[in-house]
Specification:
Rossmann fold, 21% strand, 34% helix, alpha/beta, 6-stranded parallel beta sheet, 509 residues, binds NADPH dihydro-nicotinamide-adenine-dinucleotide phosphate, 15 helices, binds the ligand O=C1O[C@H](COP(=O)(O)O)[C@@H](O)[C@H](O)[C@H]1O, Dihydrodipicolinate Reductase, domain 2
Amino acid sequence: MTNTEISVTPPPPAAPERKPDPCIVVIFGASGDLTKRKLLPALYHLEQGNLLPSEIAVVGVARRPLEQSFPPDMKEGVIAGGGVEKDDPKLDPFISKVSYHAMNFDDPKGYDSLKAVLSGIDEKFGTKGNRLFYLATAPEYFSDIIKLLGEHGMSKPTSDRTWVRTIIEKPFGHDLESARALNDEVNKVFDEDQIFRIDHYLGKETVQNILVFRFANSIFENVWNRNYIDHVEITAAESIGIEGRGPFYEGAGALRDVVQNHVMEVLSFIAMEPPVSFEASAVRAEKVKVWRAIQPIAPEHAIRGQYGPSTINGKPAAGYREEDRVSPTSQTETYAALKLEIENWRWAGVPFYIRAGKRMTKRLTEITIMFKQPPLRLFKKEGTSEHIEPNFISMRIQPDDGITLRFGAKVPGPSMDISAVDMDFSYADAFGPSSNNGYERLLLDAMLGDATLFAHRDGVEATWALITPILENWKKTPLSDLPNYPAGSWGPATSDALLKADGRKWRKL
Ligand SMILES: NC(=O)C1=CN([C@@H]2O[C@H](COP(=O)(O)OP(=O)(O)OC[C@H]3O[C@@H](n4cnc5c(N)ncnc54)[C@H](OP(=O)(O)O)[C@@H]3O)[C@@H](O)[C@H]2O)C=CC1
Ligand SMILES: O=C1O[C@H](COP(=O)(O)O)[C@@H](O)[C@H](O)[C@H]1O
């Protein structure tokens, strides 16, 4: 197979950006992994890119005192979290806008003092009473924090010129019932247009590019249907394990951790109808239609796996049951594969195979759109029945973000031999490297009040409605053969069997 690169027309100059209003970003869970590795670096990069208003402040909230949460001080603590350039002259001005408030999330007095702190910041920094409350905490705290913000009069704007919004992290609930209950709790305190349910996959350029690829080009959409597409594969493979998050992961597993949210979001972008506009309500409506058209998933179309001990690159790798704070008899799945059927005019009869797993051969999130064979085999070799390799479009979300189109080309010479060739588009080659971790775009959108790339109540409940019956069935039917795939592999044999039953196999990645 040979590669053919596409030449790239340089992008037009960036349109002037609209800056958010002055505001305070209050991060609950400030000393946590997400804040240090992703949120603070994202805010810093926005500041570096001159995308934030000059009147902005960040207040981190967590239980322990500052010197324990960010040892020995805020600046060094932020640097230690990674993702910022320590010698950048913009780092000090950024840090000067970040402060810290130690309190327990369930202590009402803490909210009184937080409210006073925020008023003081409004006066000092000119942040004008606008608030963005980011709940970067374990999900069990979401309802308490929301309730206490409401009880302390912090959930409503103080005038018709100010705003209060909240970003709520995933997982939003742990099944359909709890997601509904959480939605009810949150809706008692915040109006729907104040709520931003985040899924950082929607902030990734390559995920947004799925919509651009489909709806800003006229050449692909005509073949984007059951007449031309044989099946779709979505793979979200991680080479890392659970990285010390034993207690969280034991209660989550791959379905709750990434399939119900990240993978379902990606799938909806691949499968949705063109929205009437790029307004939040129009995009969300089309996504929900896709999830609601997915048929109940048969038990034999839901595969689970758990990684066992192995050797990776000559080094021993622990199995999931040997990880810190994981039960030695755990039934939690670290791998899940599903066959989904979307019963609508566009997709009837086109299976969507999705898989997600920890400790797989490599880190790779990618979508393959596999096309049907041409109706007539004009170029078959004399005496053979072999099929030519089908065309596919592969969209790489990460790493090596880009898109490949594979097609057949004539091999030079006297006979009509065909070879598969690739046309490759690489994001980095075309537009240069990007520091965007998904959170930059989404933080900025929330500050601007644009909810297009955030989940809506209906969507969250629609995806839980699909996933919950599988979770319930798995709970009732423990597997006796776990662990069933070695760390560093492509998952359990049962996952290959899922496609084999349909005469297909996962594309080799
Ligand atoms: N980490 C990641 O890469 C990702 C995380 N998420 C989501 O983000 C959220 C946060 O995850 P993560 O950062 O990993 O979690 P961590 O466990 O690392 O952080 C939890 C934070 O909450 C604080 N906290 C816990 N209990 C209390 C309490 N009673 N009162 C005050 N503060 C408290 C902790 O403060 P202290 O240290 O003082 O106890 C800490 O700041 C989760 O919903 C997760 O699903 C989503 C995508 C990716
Ligand atoms: O939300 C989560 O996502 C990460 C994967 O995110 P990525 O941007 O690195 O692909 C996953 O590792 C984590 O378990 C999950 O909670």
